[in-house]
């Protein structure tokens, strides 16, 4: 007998094949296309288990619309119920809109959610820890795990009362018990790999955010489904077949296990892992029909005008916008300062897809540039902390072999981390990339005076950074002195209502050397 495990992960609410940059797109990803691939595999495979592996509730404009504009998660979850999953798990972004909204969303799904390591009062807070599934006379135990690093990123109001057990510890506890109950044990983990899959060498700081490699070393796991990092991975690691299918439904993860009956039960005698691209597949009618009404409303909402620009706020080159301050980045920092009553702010250009604002600013421009549902926090930092944060951001840059300015490889591999390079407003500073890491901030002033190590400074940042997200250890929740609980998309719209005409200029308060 052959068991095929199919998975999606990190679809982020991209039910339809569009990135919402414009109407009527047919791009090579989406939940709807993944559904078609899943159905095609089901038609030819022996026995199939389908898994949604987390980060499905947040990310797309449709997801935002369902959570914030006309709150009703069914507008989004209808697309997921149309896929026909056997089970699902939680990702870290499921908590972005709070536990109450998450519970409401889960109640609208037609498949169970598994989560063994997020507890409330000592019991699983969301669904069951595991599920036993029968396929062709074989009992399959599926364990659901979520990265336990969520408290480092998420606002406390969204995770109040929850306990996050380390995923590795939960696996070591549960897997032996599941082996006694089932012929096959599958672990579905919304987390990624902390080590090189071939050499086992660490590829990041071993904080516990990602423990996929360590999970492959837990005895008794027959297959491991992963996500979180948006990487495209498939193979056999330490004898365990693993997949990670990328982002927005670009692939479906496929693990094939050949099972042979023995006197002691079924035994895995062959294993294989691969990714099945979805780009060439048509979008499944069942999924597109399920979200047709809210999808049409979202497109109209996205085209609603909010303001206009008299100068130039477009981004033509994302790297250049990180080297020479873009008017768009200065605008985001101005919004953050206005919303928090501060005069220092830091933000990032999160990815390379944003294009800034044209002459007319619509909601489409806002949500396709500012892609995360961040709220804001004000952190009280010492001058030493502020300089340390700038030094860590400055690690984004590296010199190429011929001495030109480039990006440090660790911000590109194993996954892009452009969101961990912050640009600040309200201070003046210089980054000299010719200097050693940790000594690159060669000038730093506030209101014309040098920033001193012992002085305190109030700084507005998103809640991800305020909690130390991105391994910025000079930030933590103890330094937060106040918060603004409005979503940044809403704050941007509010700002544009008060300032409907933007000048589209930047004051170039920071410089990066050597110049491009």
From TrEMBL:
Q: Where is the Calcineurin-like phosphoesterase domain?
A: 4-231
Q: Which reaction does it catalyse?
A: a ribonucleoside 3'-phosphate + H2O = a ribonucleoside + phosphate; a nucleoside 2',3'-cyclic phosphate + H2O = a nucleoside 3'-phosphate + H(+)
Q: Where in the cell is it found?
A: Cell envelope
CDD domains, A to Z: MPP_CpdB_N
| InterPro entries, per database record | 5'-Nucleotdase_C, 5'-Nucleotdase_C_sf, 5'-Nucleotdase_CS, 5_nucleotidase/apyrase, Calcineurin-like_PHP, CpdB_N, Metallo-depent_PP-like
The Swiss-Prot or TrEMBL record lists the needed cofactor(s) as:
a divalent metal cation
Record keywords: Hydrolase, Metal-binding, Multifunctional enzyme, Nucleotide-binding, Signal
Domain named 5'-Nucleotidase C-terminal: residues: 319-476
Q: Name one GO biological process term.
A: nucleotide catabolic process
Write down any Gene Ontology CC term: outer membrane-bounded periplasmic space
User: A Pfam family this protein belongs to?
Assistant: Metallophos
GO MF: 2',3'-cyclic-nucleotide 2'-phosphodiesterase activity; 3'-nucleotidase activity; metal ion binding; nucleotide binding
Q: Which family does it belong to?
A: Belongs to the 5'-nucleotidase family.
List the protein's name: 2,3-cyclic-nucleotide 2-phosphodiesterase
């Amino acid at each position: 007998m052959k068991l095929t495990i199919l998975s999606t992960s990190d679809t982020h609410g991209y039910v339809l094949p569009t990135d919402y940059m414009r109407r009527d797109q047919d791009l090579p990803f989406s939940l709807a296309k993944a559904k078609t691939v899943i159905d095609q595999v089901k038609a030819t495979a022996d026995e199939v288990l389908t898994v949604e592996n987390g980060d499905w509730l947040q990310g797309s404009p449709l997801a935002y619309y369902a959570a914030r504009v006309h709150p009703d998660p069914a507008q989004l979850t209808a697309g997921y119920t149309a896929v026909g999953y056997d089970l699902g798990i939680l990702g870290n972004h499921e908590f972005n809109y709070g536990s109450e909204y998450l519970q409401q969303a889960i109640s609208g799904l037609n498949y169970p959610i598994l989560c063994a390591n997020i507890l409330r009062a000592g019991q699983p807070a969301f669904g069951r820890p595991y599920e036993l599934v029968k396929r062709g006379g074989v009992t399959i135990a599926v364990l659901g795990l979520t990265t336990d690093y969520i408290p480092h990123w998420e606002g406390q109001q969204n995770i109040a009362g929850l306990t996050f057990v380390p995923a590795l510890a939960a696996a070591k506890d549960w897997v032996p018990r599941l082996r006694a109950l089932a012929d096959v044990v599958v672990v579905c983990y919304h987390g990624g790999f902390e080590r090189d899959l071939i050499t086992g060498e660490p590829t990041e700081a071993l904080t516990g955010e990602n423990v996929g490699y360590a999970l492959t070393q837990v005895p008794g796991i027959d297959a491991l489904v992963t996500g979180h990092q948006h990487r495209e991975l498939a193979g056999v690691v330490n004898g365990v077949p693993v997949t990670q299918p990328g982002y927005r439904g670009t692939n479906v993860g496929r693990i094939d296990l050949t099972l042979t009956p023995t006197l002691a039960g079924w035994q895995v005698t062959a294993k294989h892992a691969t990714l099945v691209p979805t780009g060439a597949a048509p979008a499944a009618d069942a999924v597109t029909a399920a979200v047709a009404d809210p999808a049409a409303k979202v497109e109209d909402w996205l085209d609603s005008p909010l303001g206009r620009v008299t100068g130039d706020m477009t981004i033509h080159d994302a790297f250049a916008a990180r080297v020479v301050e873009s008017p768009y980045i200065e605008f985001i920092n101005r919004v953050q300062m206005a919303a928090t009553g501060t005069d220092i702010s830091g933000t990032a250009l999160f990815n390379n897809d944003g294009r800034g604002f044209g002459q007319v600013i619509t909601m489409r421009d806002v949500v396709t540039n500012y892609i995360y549902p961040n709220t804001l926090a004000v952190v009280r930092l010492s001058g030493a902390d502020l300089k340390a944060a700038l030094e860590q951001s400055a690690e984004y840059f590296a010199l190429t072999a011929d001495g030109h300015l480039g990006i440090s490889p660790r911000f590109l591999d194993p996954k892009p981390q452009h969101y961990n390079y912050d640009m600040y407003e309200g201070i003046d500073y210089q980054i000299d990339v010719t200097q050693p890491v940790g000594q690159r901030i060669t000038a730093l002033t506030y209101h014309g005076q040098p920033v001193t190590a012992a002085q305190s400074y109030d700084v507005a940042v998103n809640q991800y950074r305020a909690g130390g997200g991105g391994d910025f250890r000079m930030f933590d929740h103890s330094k937060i002195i106040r918060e603004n609980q409005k979503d940044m998309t809403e704050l941007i719209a509010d700002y544009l209502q008060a300032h409907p005409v933007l000048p589209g200029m930047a004051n170039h308060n920071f410089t990066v050397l050597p110049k491009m």
